[in-house]
Amino acid sequence: MTALLTIIVLVFILVAIWQMVKIFDLAQAKNENDNPGVATDKDNSINGYLMMGFLAFIYVITIVSFVKWGDLPLVSNSASEHGPTIDNLMIISMIIIFFVQTVTQFLLHYFAFKYKGEKGKKALFFADNNKLEAIWTIIPVIVLAGLIIYGLNTWINIMGVDESDDPLVVELYAQQFNWKARYGGADNTLGKANVRLIDIDRANILGLDESDPNAQDDVITTELHLPVGRPVLFKMRSQDVLHSAYMPHFRAQMNCVPGMITQFGFTPTVTTADMRQTSQMIEKVANINKIRVENSKPLIAQGEEPLERYEFDYLLLCNKICGKSHYNMQMKIVVETQEEYDAWMKEQKEFKNSLVN
Amino acid sequence: MSAHADNHAHDDDHGHHHKETFVTKYIFSQDHKMIAKQYLITGTIMGVIGVLMSMMMRMQIAWPEEPNVIFEALLGKWAPDGVMDADIYLALVTIHGTIMVFFVLTAGLSGTFSNLLIPLQIGARDMASGFLNMVSYWLFFLSSVIMVISLFVEAGPAAAGWTIYPPLSALPMAQAGSGMGMTLWLVSMAIFIASSLLGSLNYIVTVINLRTKGMSMTRLPLTIWCFFITAVIGVISFPVLLSAALLLIMDRSFGTSFFLSDIFIQGEVLHYQGGSPVLFEHLFWFLGHPEVYIVILPAMGLVSEIMASNSRKPIFGYRAMIASILAIAFLSTIVWGHHMFISGMNPFLGSVFTFTTLLIAIPSAVKAFNWITTLWKGNLQMNPAMLFSIGFVSTFITGGLTGIILGDSALDINVHDTYFVVAHFHLVMGISALYGMFAGIYHWYPKMFGRMLNKNLGYIHFWVTAVCAYGVFFPMHFIGMAGLPRRYYTNSNFPLFDDLANVNVIITIFALVGGVVQILYLYNFFASIFYGKKTVQNPWKSTTLEWTAPIKHIHGNWEGEIPHVHRWPYDYSKPGHDVDFVPQNIPLKDGEEELQH
How does it sit in the membrane (chain B) (predicted)? Predict the structure, then answer.
C-alpha cells in the first residue's frame, strides 16, 4: 500500500510540475529570440546558482551519510589476523578518494557557476597546455603506484597460505541452499571426496571415499566452530552451482566452484564471546534490538509472535547468486577457546560412525 | 588519400531523386538518420521496461513483506496476493541488467549516435553499407522482441544474473528461469551480438574510408573518435561472448561439458565431467569488462563535444583526450580478471589484474581534469544538454573513484558482490552513460526531428534526476561496506542487517522519484516530435559539419557538394573572428594559423 500511495503522490507532483512549466513557457515566450529552446542569460544564471546548490547537496549527503551511517561499514573491529591490514588499506584509500572527490567536485561545480554564460562575453581560447597535462598524469601515477604496491603486498600476504604453521584444515561444502563444514579429525587430514560418491541412503552426503583411511575420522557439521588464534585453511567445494563463502567479519571470501577445490586461509583472533563484549558490538546489537522491538509491534497487534531478540554471531553467507533461496543460505560461525573447541569436537560424530548400513 | 576519391565516387550513387515508399522510408530504411531514430525509440522502449523493473526491485527491498498492488498488476502469477516471488526477483535482477547494459546503453546509446553522427560529422552521404546498417537494426529489433517474449514463458525468464554464470544458468533443475527463459536469453543475445558486430564493422569502415576532403584523423570531432574506438573494442570482444554463449548452448542442449563438472543436484549425479565454470567467467568478462567501456566511451565523446560547444571554448587537450581514449581502450581488454579475484583463479593472476586495473585510473583522471579545464574561463550556455554533461563528469568522478577500492584485489575480498559494487557501477557506467545519452538527445534532438525539446522540462528533468541519482547510490556504498550482499530477495533472514533497513527505504524513495520523473522526459520527447518549436539550422552555434546540413532530412545529407573541411572542430571563441564559433567548413583566413593541437 505504501508503494502505491507513494506513486500516486509522485504522479500528482508530476502533473503539478507540468502545469508550472506551461506557465513558464508562456511567460518566456514573449522574451524569446529567434532561436527558441536555447538557454538565455537568465537560464544560465539560474542554473549556475543551482550548480552551487548541487555542490552543497553532494557535500551534505556525504556528511549526513557519514554521521548517520558511518558506523555501519566494516572497517574496524575485524576478527581475523589479516583483517586490520585490509581495514587500513581501506581507510587510506577512502581518505584519498574523499580528498579527490571533494576537490574535483568543487572545481567542476564552481566553474559551472563562475563562468555561466552572458551575452557578449567571449570565452578564453585555451586549447592545450602540456605542463598541466603532465601534472595531472604524473600525480595519479604516483598515488596509484603507492596504492598498487601497498595493495599487492596485502593481497600476497593474505592469499599466501603457509602450510608449515600447521593450520586447521576445514572443508566448506556448499549446496543449494545450505552449508556444511568438514573437519579432518584427529589426523587433521581431509579424506578424499567426490560428488559421484554421494550415497544418500548411507547418509554419505558429501561424497566421501569410504575406503580412504583419512576419511574415517572426518567430522561433518552444520555449524562452523573455530579455535581462536589458530590458523585455519579452508578448502571450498560445491556440489551444484557456484556459491561464495563470505565471512565479512573476518574479511574473508572465496567462491565455491563445482568441479574444483578453492581455498582461503585466515586466523581468527577474537572469540564470539569477546566480540559480543566490545563496545561497538554492544551498541550495534542494542540498536538492532530496538529496531526489532519496533518491528514486532504490528506483529503483536495481529496476534503473532514478536521477533526474536538478536544476539551477535559471526556468519558465513552465500554471496554468489545461486538460485531461489540464495537470500537465506547461511551458517553460524563460533570462534571459541581451544578447550571449548575440543569439548565441542568430542561431541561430534566421526564419519565412519555416521554411516547408515 | 584515396579515401577522398572514393567519397566522390560514392556521391554519384546517392542521387536524391529515387522514389521512397512508406516502407523504405520508415521501416526498412537504409538511411542512417532514420536508423538512428529507430535505435533510439527501440532503446527508449526497452529502457522503460528496464527502469520499471528496477523500481519493482527497490520496492521489494524496502518493503519486503508487504503486498503491493503494483506487483500484483505487473507480475501477475509471480506475485500471488501481491507478494513478490523469490524466483521473479532474481529474474528482475537479471533482465534489468541485461536490458540496461546491452539494449539501452549499448544499442540505444552507441547505435543511435554512431548512426546519426558518424556520416554527418565526417561529411559522408551515408554509412559505408546502408544495407548492413539496416540489417544491423533489424537484428537488434529481433533480439529485443525475443528478450521481451522471454518475460512471458511459463517457468519465467532467465534468472541467473546478467552474468549468467553456469552451472546455475546451465541446469534447468537448479532454477526455474534456467529452462526456456535462459534459452531465449541466449538466442536473443546471440542475435544481439550479430547486430552489434555488423554495426561496428560498418562504423569502422565508414570512419576510415568516407571522411570528406580535409577531414584528417586529427580533425575528427571527439565524438567520432569515441564511436570509432568503441566499435573496435566491440569487434574484438563481442565475438568472445558469442563463443561463450554458443558453448553454453552446447552444454545445455547437447550434453557437452565445457563449463560443467562433478555436479550432484536433486538427488542425482549428472554426467558432466572436466569442464570449469571459471572458464566461462573468463570468456564472459573478456567481453563483460570491455563492455562497460563500450557503454561509457560514446557517452564520453558526446559529453566532450557538448561541453566544448556550450562552453564556447575548445575542448582542452584534444590530443591528450585521443591518447586517453586509446589508452582506455587498450587497457580495457586486459583487466577482465578484476571481476574474478575470488573466483578461485590463481592469486598471482589477481596481482596482475590489480595492476592493470588501477592503471586505467590514469587516463580516466586525465579526461576528468580536461573536462573541468574546458569549463574554466568559458562562457557556459546552460542548455539541458550541458547540464547533463556536467552531471556526467560529476557522477563519473564519484563512481570512478570507488573503482580504486574494487580494483584492489585485497579490498575486493570484503566488498565483492556487495551493494558497494552495485553503487559503484551504477554511478560510473549506469548513471553516467545515461546522462551522456540524455545530453546527446537534448543536443541533437533538433538534428533528428527538426524541432526543439522543451528546455524548462529539460531543466526539471535534469535536476530531479541528478538529486535522485546521488540519493540512491551514495548511501548504497555504506550498506555495501556493512557487508550486505547484492541479489538478496529480502534481508529479513539476517537480523544482522536490520539496521540497514531504514537506509534501504530512503534509497527506494529516491529511486521511485527518480524513476517517475522520467515520465516528464518521455512526454517531452514524444510530444516535441509533433509539437516542439521549429528549430533553426544551427541552434547551438556549433562548428561540426552536421549543422551545415539542411534541417529537413534528405537522403545523402547535403544538397550539392559535400562540405570540405579546413580546420579542427573546436574553433570556439578563436581570437581574430567576430563570431564565437568557426565551423569546420570555413577556410582559414589569410594569415590565420591553424592551431597545432
Answer: Multi-pass membrane protein
